[in-house]
Amino acid sequence: MKKLNIVIVMIEPPLPFGNAAARWFYVLLKGLVERGHQVKAFAVCSKEAEMEKAKKLFPKNVYDLRLYPIRKTSTPLQKIKSLFRPYSFKISEQMQNDLDVELSKGYDVLHIEQMWGGWAACKHLEKAVLNIHHYQLIDLEYTSNSNLKERYEKWQITRAEKLITKCFKTIRTCSPRLEEKAKELSPQSYIETNPVGIDGSLYEYIKDEERGVEPTIVMIGTMTWYPTSSAAIRLLERLWPEILKQVPNAKLKIVGYDAKSVLSKYLDNPGVEIFENVPEIEPYFKMGSVFVYAPGRGSGMKIKILEAMLFGIPVVTTSEGAEGLPVVDGEHAGLCEEDDGLVKRAVELLLDVEKQNIQRKKARELVESVCGPKATLDKMEEIYSKI
After folding, report:
1. CA distances (Å), 303 to each of 24, 82, 109, in order?
2. Burial code of 163-190, b = ≥16 C-beta within 10 A, e = fewer?
3. What would the mean pLDDT of 362-371 be, rounded to a whole number?
4. Which of 51, 68, 335, 363 is least enclosed, having the fewest CB within 10 Å?
5. Burial class (CB in 10 A: 0-12, 13-18, 19+), 209
6. Distances (CA, A) of 177 to 72, 96, 157, 291, 316
7. What is the DSSP track for 79-120?
């Protein structure tokens, strides 16, 4: 493929262990530059420490990465603007101005990452591609909202997602399910699926002999995100009591952002430990015999499932949890929708270390082949060629 002048907009900095989407941003920016493309990247940063990490990972002598702190306060005019462009506050005026100046010099592709980044491209849609990681209008479809503020926020989110999707002529989604929804909202657009890219070389596969001997279920994720919090509550209320009956010496460890706050009423449940806002997640993955993540509703690929598979932790999940991966039940993961089936698969794995080792090996191979940098960047270049 010929070398392109690509401008990327990201709403978090590209970090291999930043937020969920940042893992792909890291693969994207690093990989495109290594392939010889001329890349200018604009990234919003919500945490100053992550901004500094990104600067070190992507030095100025090699990368053109421009980092902007997220706007924390809004003027009355900006608040009025947000009524018409919900969540556009993430893109500061300075970032928008700098982006407009750069694009005025000429470019081949404007690559917009995540839904709210779409507002930055409103004047530059002709050669733009929007990457959709998930749809909150799917995730929140069956949620009940107890007060006016929650109902208003849900309305704004779903309205904005529909507006932004319809603007783009070219769209990349991370799963066939998202592609189907995007085609429903914008049937005139060119839409392709390309899974989330993740660098498996950064995840050290845990050797068979280094795994813990105590049967331990882990679940890791951001508890302020509805799909994850609903999966944690399902695990605690419906799955764990049945698992504990069949494996009395089992332990359950739940880890995540705001986990203790969101799951406060479960802190004293038998066999359960809950950890929140930990500095590193790798040690908690390594504690697990089995990773159980069973959301009832949640679109897009689940990064923590990809990471569990790369570390070599056997996974039990639903089709929602495995979205975007061609998982075969019993081969790459325990896959089931019903509580009884999830419990059965978790217990079988807890009691059979050999089965764990067979499944986890195949799961890592699957993630590396489907979500590895080469496969996902090859597909991304193919999408660029359509613009």
Report:
1. 10, 30, 26
2. ebbebbbbbbbbbebbbebbeebbeebe
3. 98
4. 51
5. exposed
6. 34, 31, 19, 24, 20
7. HHHHHHSTTGGGS-HHHHHHHHHHHHT--SEEEEESGGGGGG
Task: For 376, list phi and psi in degrees, rounded to 5.
Answer: -75, -35
Give me the percent of the chain exceeding a pLDDT of 90: 82
Which residue matches tokens 């809950």?
A: 274
End-to-end CA distance of the chain: 13
- Model confidence pLDDT, tens digit, residues 31-60: 999 999 999 999 999 888 999 999 999 999
Lowest average pLDDT, out of 143-157, 237-251, 310-324, goes to 143-157
Per-residue model confidence as pLDDT tens digits over 83-98: 778 888 888 889 999 9
The 10s digit of each residue's pLDDT in 276-335 is 999 888 899 989 999 999 998 889 999 999 999 999 999 999 999 999 999 999 999 999
Residues 6+ apart with CB under 8 A from 299: 134, 135, 138, 139, 175, 177, 178, 181, 227, 320, 323
Task: Give the bridge partners for 107, in sequence order.
Answer: none
What is the predicted pLDDT for the residue at 202?
Answer: 96
Question: In sequence order, which ranges of the chain are alpha helices (DSSP H)?
Answer: 22-34, 48-57, 76-84, 93-104, 136-139, 148-167, 176-185, 226-234, 240-246, 259-262, 282-286, 303-311, 339-350, 353-371, 373-385
> Residue 10: its pLDDT value, please?
96
| pLDDT tens digits, one per residue of 184-196 | 999 999 999 999 9
Dihedrals φ, ψ of 66, to 5°?
A: -115, 125
DSSP state of 195: P
Nearest Cα residue to 178 out of 164, 198, 192: 192
Cα 76 to chain centroid, rounded: 33
| Cα–Cα distance for residue pair 200/216, rounded to 1 Å | 24
Instruction: Measure the CA angle with vertex 270, ends 268 and 274; round to 5°.
Output: 55
